[in-house]
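Quarterly update, task 2.4: 6R9-bound model.
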Amino acid sequence: MSQIESVLQENRVFAPSEAFVKQATVSGMEAYQALCAEADRDYAGYWARLAKEHVVWKEPFTQSLDESEAPFYKWFTGGKLNVSYNCLDKHVEAGNGDKVAIIFEADGGEVTKVTYKDLLSRVAKFANALKAQGIKKGDRVIIYLPMSIEGVVAMQACARIGATHSVVFGGFSAKSLEERILDAGAVAIITADEQARGGKHIPLKPAVDEALDLVAGKSAIKSVIVYKRTGGACAMKAGRDVWWHDITDSQSEVCEPEWVDAEHPLFLLYTSGSTGKPKGVQHSTGGYLLHAVLTTKWTFDVKPNDVFWCTADIGWVTGHTYITYGPLACGATEIVFEGVPTYPDAGRFWKMIQEHKVSIFYTAPTAIRSLIKAAEANPAVAPKSYDLSSLRLLGSVGEPINPEAWMWYYENVGGGRCPIVDTFWQTETGGHMITPLPGVTPLVPGSCTLPFPGIQAAIVDETGADVEWGKGGFLVVKKPWPSMIRTIWGDPERFKKSYFPEDLGGTLYLAGDGAVRDAKNGYFTIMGRIDDVLNVSGHRMGTMEIESALVSNPLVAEAAVVGRPDDLTGEAICAFVVLKGARPNGDAAKAVIKELQDWVGKEIGPIAKPKDIRFGENLPKTRSGKIMRRLLRSLAKGEEITQDVSTLENPAILDQLKQAGS
Ligand code: 6R9
């Protein structure tokens, strides 16, 4: 709450400099308002105009927006295109083949540069290799790779042949992989022997082997393609596993793109919701690409001479839109980095910005907060020890950025001259939804400011009615937009229920976040999730997923998971656990905590490990048997319980659960 209050009291305003405004793609508030007015006047016509101007179509579309099966909206009906053509061939054909597309910096600091011509040739060869493996248009392919040029190549190659990729973050476990392989009905997995992180080699392929053992007899997987990243030990199963280089090196550099319908599913990306089962968010080809391009041009103001760096992993949506697709579709030069921000030391980001002359830098508040701490402890790794004068624009994504971190980023990294675009969006939205435009919007630390032109964001109450500025409510989007989620893979009912709930009238897209608009200027401030989803270091985690993982441990009878504020990670995971045996104390408790943390790490992935685990003989429940999560949240925060606990079946349990680490 203190953060929201401090944003509400925030009165520092940073208007864009005249120099920035002058050169910006969208320049000045009048230009922004004109775009918004155009969308208001003729919504479908506005997006159709942009889709014609910013995307190359093999066959033109005949209808902009088809609402006949709402909320299953269709965009750009009749149009045919290929995303990889738009990201690669287009630039080579225009004579820009020798421009550097990707500057890759490995964990150990080795740098590899790939031009657009090289990248096209690598993508075409790998696309031919995929086809030779029998993978075809419409097949689902799981990508489980570390940050690498190959990761981008694999995604682009799938797009080239019309296969739908589903990238699984390399930090997810075999169990998470298993779930996604089955749900997506995938036919192939692209992975690597090991990944390199912070100077260590971490095996990746064994998780694939384990997942495939778990799905034996149930999955459609025919091949596993393994990129040799480190050359470490890697068991290969004959008849199933093949090396990337073995199937690719002799392929032709020419691969005709598969021209697909605008609505063809480009990718599925699994994300957490409020039940235990992750949702396969399905994205389209045409509408998704349009928004990736537009936001890269308008929010990031990307120009031919820029060096763009988004620090996300390709396992998250940010890596999809702002590494694999947006910057390449705009013909930019971009950085891809492997490793962690703190190795070889916490100056890595600043050193990379200095060395590669990065001009646009996009990262997450959690990274900023940890680098502030590191800089305070050791001035040698502080931004001021590096030459960051190449920077002209900064961005933030993934969670609310607290005004203190915003100011530090603005002054220490941006030297007080770079606008910060605090971009609010989600896996489901495909690209930025509410964000400043750097040559337009006066910035207020902690606010994502105003909707992207054409996006009809609003705040409503529990009946779907607009609330007045200054009052909090549910963040919604009133009209469909081109890059929106099309459905939840295999579960259209859940799609409707989760995003277009009847309580709100059934036509508003419910983002799942609470928000408030400033009473004076209408700026949006995001107040966090309204559902059982936590945001830990910018990663979305469902409390139910973690609870399911905990109760699958033989020691555990029952578990409830809540979030509590954390200075570094935004939110921290706090689990209340009832064991089947006696409630442990002291060292015995510590040992069980460690065992359960490791268990969750193995079930879901290390990012899901609860930071706190408390044991009780029971959980606080109402007489109807509902766990009182509100109370657990107060306990997790260490707050005094002021709520009415008279409806609790077992009030005495609160004293037990108050004891942290017990
Ligand atoms: C892109 C991405 C989405 C959730 C979203 C919200 C939070 C993202 C934010 C932000 C405040 C921002 N979120 N950006 N909150 N300000 N600029 O992060 O997608 O992983 O699906 O998470 O993240 O809570 O609902 P995803």
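Highlight for this quarter: The two ends are 27 Å apart (CA to CA).
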